[in-house]
Amino acid sequence: MVSPDRPLLRTLQGEAVWPPPIWLMRQAGRYLPEYKVTRATAGQFLDLCLSPDHAVEVTLQPLRRYAFDGSIMFSDILMVPHGLGQTVWFAEGEGPKLLPVRTDEALAALDLAGFHQRVGPVYDIVRRLRSQIPGTTTLIGFAGAPWTVATYMIEGGSSRSYETTKSLMWQNPDWFQRLIDLIVETTVAYLSAQVSAGADVLQLFDSWASALGGPAFDRWVIDPNRRIVKALKAQHPTVPVICFPRAAGVQYQRFADQVPCAGLSLDPTVPLDWARDTLGPKCLQGNLDPILLVAGGEALMTEVRRIGDAMRGHPFVFNLGHGILPNTPLDHVAALVAEVRSW
Length: 343
Ligand code: 1CP
Hints:
Distance between the termini: 27 Å
Order of helices and strands: HHHHEHEEHHHEHHHEHEHEHEHHEH
Number of strands: 9
Helix content: 40-55%
Structural class: alpha/beta
Largest sheet: 7 strands, parallel
Bound molecules: coproporphyrinogen I
Strand content: 5-15%
CATH architecture of the domain at 7-242: Alpha-Beta Barrel
CATH topology of the domain at 7-242: TIM Barrel
Radius of gyration: 19 Å
Low-confidence stretches: none
Strand order of the largest sheet: 1-4-5-6-7-8-9
CATH class of the domain at 7-242: Alpha Beta
């Protein structure tokens, strides 16, 4: 049964709930021994993402240990390129690989018509989670933001400098705009279908937002996020969207002014007093350094309390400033959750 009292949802609707709700980005994953067991039986990483039995199981694993207030469906931002028919695979120990999209022909071959069918299991996963998570837990759907997804689609995997992506973006902005527009349209349809399947809240991950500045940040980070959030708000007015233009620095302010999202996720470099005063009316989420959660001890607790002191009285979601790291000790996570819940 879904309870009306979901602290994470209430917070994103603007209430300064205290103690703040807590969940962790990438809370399912390799720091959990039980994840490694399921991962080993599921086959390829993409098979894990597209197998409802396994994906539901790994989504529930961190909830069983830590009773987080939010449950993020287990999936990956590369589900959108996969759904568009781009060839995506995960090379063991190397990360994601894709057959790059760099030409008119490759762009024309992407196929929105077959999208929902290719990602169909994701909607099944959300539906099953809706009925299996505790009633007070908020179910989070997600997607990558267009700029970040485009870097993977063009580079063919992870990148340090995004050299091919940026070169194409500046040499052929019309082509790049067509790719971004396709990702915007697909992402709206994808997230909307996640809501129809039962997601309470959505998060857009723009993990590589800090690669752009000036007008390029406005055009390729702010504008696509704004269009997606506006379209989702029109279709699902009560569903809050959290945006995460990671490491965008002072550009967080321009982003906040122009993107009508309910929540902003902050990376560890964002000063919280500045965020509270300038990004203000929005609910803020973050921003513990994931390496502090690996380090543990007094340093961890001092920082966790500093974050709490800065954000008390404001709608705030306790989270990391980026995904949890595989080396994170389980008892550090338990100590973090106990500390936040003691406030
Ligand atoms: O070996 C394994 O088990 C695969 C590791 C892994 C996992 C656990 C990958 C490959 N993706 C995931 C799951 C995942 N990815 C989630 C799970 C839900 C949860 O939080 O429990 C989420 C939200 C993502 C989102 C994601 N994937 C992002 C955005 C968030 C972020 O961390 O910046 C990005 C950039 C990706 C791409 C990706 N997928 C996987 C890897 C190793 C990467 C990053 C590669 C890179 O650094 O470029």
